[in-house]
Design brief:
Radius of gyration: 26 Å
Strand content: 35-45%
Largest sheet: 7 strands, mixed
CATH architecture of the largest domain: Sandwich
Distance between the termini: 63 Å
Helix content: under 10%
CATH class of the largest domain: Mainly Beta
Oligomer: single chain
CATH superfamily of the largest domain: Cupredoxins -  blue copper proteins
């Protein structure tokens, strides 16, 4: 059935449901969909055969708890059990025969995908008519992280945004034999969107719940955690872990999973998950305290996500009173993690060395973004003298006299050297700064109302106040410092900067190390700035010299493609991701083009062979117009 026909049928069905009381029929109340934490496999597994009976039904979904807003959605249920968001988890050992029946209790046809042997075509369709039943029998296939899904309003995965947006469920195939090692967790991301109203109504969930109702995990100190993450939504999500790195063990989709050997596993703090993709990850909770795992797109974790379901008065009250309430300022795709005390004596930031002391002054400038002022920083040495800029200066915006001061100065630290940073707020609102990608103690991580532990929780920094942060960078690389107040105004108006950690005895050389810092262009703008300007100043390179491009994306919600272009193809060599060196198998020269999402950093080496003029272009997608570009001049 074509999409238009499906939509027409859905509209007619919705009218009949709404009109039922007027036609003398009592409308049966919809069941409530339970949150599925994906810890219980569905069906009955006996003698190498899984028997499973599924249903597709309409239910009321309460992602923010039973007393909050609900969504009418189509969901999967295991026969005889409540419907679930996400749907029942299929989890079996390799070699299992799966016998599943799917009953469509909806008033419209259902297209089912993903209940197939792996590897396989994750888009292969099983059509189930309204009130129909289908029986499927197949082998599980290769071990991996997969999922199955269905649609009623569209033929495409990306168009499932409302009624059928929650028809997604996990499908895990474990290796054959006894399961040893660390038990894993399965987290499935889903979204619901009504773009036909203003403000837009949107809900983001992990395992059926939106923060603060998502899982709160308590993980033993020093014991590895293994997670499987499935992006069952229509949006891209850069998933960021606070305080430490995780290794990407595999990447895949509904039909296939690519497992990485030890020589291919990369360490990251943020990994972009496109719609319909999967990831297996492993990390070790090696620092005590509270941490977060979340999407780094501001609109997917901010309390603004609730505004579409509020009255104007409720929105105004929320903006005035819940700006830094950890339970209300965040929403959506966030998981809270607590690590109780253990043997944390190895944490490098606890080493008793003489600390380098710097002041990071947070300040407001002229109104650069319409109603919003420019925000930024200045860095001062212990004696109060300004630290010289090591990033390019900027031409002043038209009509704004900011001189040659970069409001997002690059903060340069040294691996293994303890530092005390005094955050001095000259802002008109509270804030707090997160040291993105840095391994440090929880109290210094910078999430107000959450970071720290029971005895000491990180506060917001009030206007006119100071606050001290202490840590010792344990690795050299490219990182970020930025506001973590989940305040769209602060991040999009410039409260961020590049954080570079060098090896001991090495200085940051701005003549060969080129920072490309992608940020927002104001709270009401859908555009971006690069190095704090919409028209960045040119870069100068020298022929025959190896340069390092440090790409950073800390925009509010913009996944970019950065390309270095000339008259012919240009290649550069990837060397690091999120501050961690890439495995040798991933450092071969490649076409100079990189997708980079929010919270990610990438380092590339490029050695121009002859003089000429190049362009560093930034776009949304490969076929989109250029949003901004930097002229790159190569000289002798």
């Amino acid at each position: 059935m074509r999409r238009a026909s499906r939509l027409a049928l859905f509209a007619a069905t919705a009218w009949l449901v709404a009109a039922a009381p007027a036609l003398g029929q009592a409308a049966a109340p919809l069941p409530a969909a339970a949150h599925n934490d994906n810890t219980r496999p569905a069906g009955t597994l006996r003698d190498g055969v899984l028997t499973l009976r599924l249903e597709a039904v309409t239910a009321r979904w309460y992602p923010e708890g039973p007393k909050a807003v609900s969504r009418t959605v189509q969901v999967f249920a295991e026969e005889g059990r409540p419907p679930q968001v996400p749907g029942p988890l299929v989890r079996v050992p390799e070699g299992t025969e799966i016998r599943v029946s799917i009953r469509n209790r909806l008033a419209m046809p259902l297209t089912l995908r993903g209940l197939i042997e792996r590897p396989g075509d994750g888009a292969a369709v099983t059509d189930i008519p309204a009130s129909g039943v289908r029986e499927l029998r197949f082998k599980a296939g290769d071990p991996g992280t997969y999922f199955y899904w269905a649609a009623t309003t569209s033929e495409t995965y990306l168009a499932r945004r409302m009624i059928d947006s929650q028809l997604t469920a996990g499908f895990i195939v474990d290796p054959a034999g006894p399961q040893t090692g660390v038990p894993d967790r399965v987290f499935i991301i889903t979204e619901w969107l009504d773009a036909g109203v203003r403000p837009v109504k949107i809900t983001g969930a992990i395992n059926g719940a939106s923060w603060p109702h998502t899982d709160r995990l308590t993980l033993p100190f020093g014991e590895a955690a293994q997670w499987r993450v499935i992006n069952g939504s229509f949006g891209a999500h850069p998933m960021h872990l606070h305080g430490t790195f995780y290794t990407v063990e595999s990447r895949g989709d509904a039909g296939r999973d690519s497992h990485y050997g030890a020589d291919k596993r990369r360490m990251v703090t943020t990994e972009l998950m496109e719609p319909g993709t999967t990831m297996a990850m492993r990390w070790v909770p090696d620092r005590v305290g509270n941490w977060l795992f979340h999407c780094h797109i501001l609109g997917h974790v901010s309390g603004d996500m609730r505004h579409g379901d509020m009255t104007p008065a409720e929105r105004e009250a929320a903006a005035a009173h819940t700006e830094h309430d950890i339970e209300k300022a965040m929403a959506g795709l966030v998981i809270g993690i607590s690590v109780p005390p253990g043997d944390e004596t190895a944490a490098p930031d606890l080493e008793p060395h003489v600390r380098r002391r710097l002041t990071l002054r947070m300040q407001e400038g002229p109104r650069r973004y319409g109603r919003a002022p420019q925000l930024g920083f200045s860095i001062l040495n212990a004696d109060g003298a300004a630290v010289p800029n090591v990033a390019p200066t900027m031409p002043p915006p038209v009509g704004v006299a900011v001189g040659d001061v970069n409001p997002s100065p690059t903060l340069v630290l040294t691996r293994g050297e303890p530092v005390t940073l005094t955050l001095d707020s000259k802002l008109s609102k509270e804030t707090q700064i997160h040291w993105h990608g840095i391994e440090l103690e929880s109290y210094n991580d910078g999430v107000p109302g959450w970071s720290g532990h029971l005895r000491q929780i990180t506060p917001a920094i009030k206007p006119g106040a100071t606050y001290q942060v202490q840590f010792t960078p344990p690795r050299a690389g490219t990182f970020i410092y930025h506001t973590h107040a989940h305040d769209r105004e602060q991040l999009s108006s410039g409260l961020y900067g590049a954080l570079i950690v060098t090896e001991p005895g090495q200085a940051f050389d701005p003549d060969v190390e080129r920072i490309v810092l992608i940020g927002g262009a104001g709270p009401d703008s859908q555009s971006i700035e690069v190095n704090r300007h919409t028209n960045p100043i040119p870069m100068n390179l020298k022929a025959g010299v190896t340069h390092r491009f440090r790409l950073i994306n800390i925009s509010p919600g913009f996944t970019a493609i950065v390309s270095l272009r000339g008259d012919g193809p240009i290649r550069w060599r990837p060397v690091a991701k999120d501050g961690a060196d890439l495995p040798p198998s991933q450092t071969s020269p490649q076409l100079a083009q990189q997708t980079i999402s929010v919270g990610e950093t990438y380092d590339f080496e490029y050695r121009p062979s002859e003089p000429g003029e190049l362009r560093l272009e930034v776009r949304k997608r490969a076929a989109d117009p250029i949003l901004t570009s930097i002229i790159v001049r190569v000289t002798r």
